[in-house]
Amino acid sequence: MAAGFSGSGGLVVVPLLVFYLSCSSQPPFVSGQESQQDDAVSLLKRASDMIKVKQYTDAHRLLSAAIEANPNLSEAYSQRASVLRHLCRFEESEKNYKKFLELKPGTSSMEKELSQLLQAQSALDSAYNYFESGDFSKALDYIDKIVLVFSPGCLRAKILKVKLLLALKDYSSAISETGYILKQDEDNLEALLLRGRAYYYLSDHDVATRHFQKGLRLDPEHSELKKAYFGLKNLLKKTKSAEDNAAMGKLRLAVEDFKAALAMDPSHSAYNVHLHLGLCKVLVQLGRGKDAIKSCTDALEIDGELVEALVQRGEAKLITEDWEGAVEDLKIAAQKSPQDMSIREALLRAEKSLKLSKRKDWYKILGVPRTASVAEIKRAYKKLALQWHPDKNVDNREAAEAQFREIAAAYEVLGDEEKRTRYDRGEDVDDMGMGMGGGGFNPFAGGGQQFTFHFEGGFPGGGFPGGGFPGGFEFNF
């Protein structure tokens, strides 16, 4: 018996068992084996709670402790097998399923889970193989429809999924997936790298830089993070150099810088579209129309709605005298941006150039330069009129008449100072002798200015009806 004190100060007798119970949390007469069993069950319960909130690593630690406390606790093996399967630690998981089936053979639910494990393992291997071969969509199917269904906590599968999304240019989804990974582990270097790349390819370079920098603070020697960070830094530096040179009028240097920037990462479409456009604008300024067309076309292949690229390509086509192509590009640009008056003005210039390209070149017909004097134009006209007079070309009279009409029409415009000035300005002079039809000038018709020709022996049939050449001068053969 043990002694104690009563509340009134008297000595009282307390039974030994009651005293033991009051001083010890350990139940009386409990064996060590029973104590371990209770500990194992408690650990198992706590592990189950961890699994419910997807804290697989903590759950695995608790389950391992439960098995150490009670190596025959079958439920701990089944749960640890499931946790390891979730984490795609497939070989360890398989051992735990088999251990459970040793303890409880023929359990169909465990046999099914073991089968799922093997499917997930095979699917992950297949996904890697398809990734390596470039079949990204099929690899993603294996990850989404098998691996992450049976092993939802598999970090390797999640990282591979992000790589596949980047390869498929689904950058927004890649950002979402890496967000889930970083929520669980904010210092995961691979997730930081891949998330930074996704922002990079969306051309959100500031956010990309922050991800690369965070990763490098955690591991300054991480080769892929260093490559990504300094690659982006050099790209921005080269772009700035190109833009600065263009602004200062150093156009040839700007061309070289734009080309160098484009060569750094040809797959960076969201950014390269602006580099192509910048290069196109500089090439237009240099008058290199053909090269400019290619650069603007490259930009439009990335973004068909880029109005400025259409405008610049239209300007480039004007340089190469592709009048119809210029009008087509500028017309589309004007439709997309109807309020932009500069585009309207460019379109009007292109339409005028197209119209001028379709009219006859009277200078070329007379064989004189645009700077020819009035006297030079008259001499050229006399010479060609005599050369192509139908009566001097009896063997090919029809062709001669057609050529003679052209020559006469050219002189009708260029021999008149007012008409020539209007023609040189690009104005319509169709009603002043062009076309030779529908009321136009006809050297074989009567009326108008009269000319006298003296030919030895005369023209057969009495010469031209109505009087002959225009121009008010006389000459002899």
UniProtKB/TrEMBL annotation:
Subcellular location: Endoplasmic reticulum lumen
N-terminal signal peptide: 1-25
Residue ranges of domain J in the record: 361-427
Single GO cellular component term: endoplasmic reticulum lumen
Keyword Transcription regulation: no
Record gene name: LOC105057085
Species annotation: Elaeis guineensis var. tenera (Oil palm)
Protein name: DnaJ protein P58IPK homolog B
Ranges for the TPR repeats: 74-107, 189-222
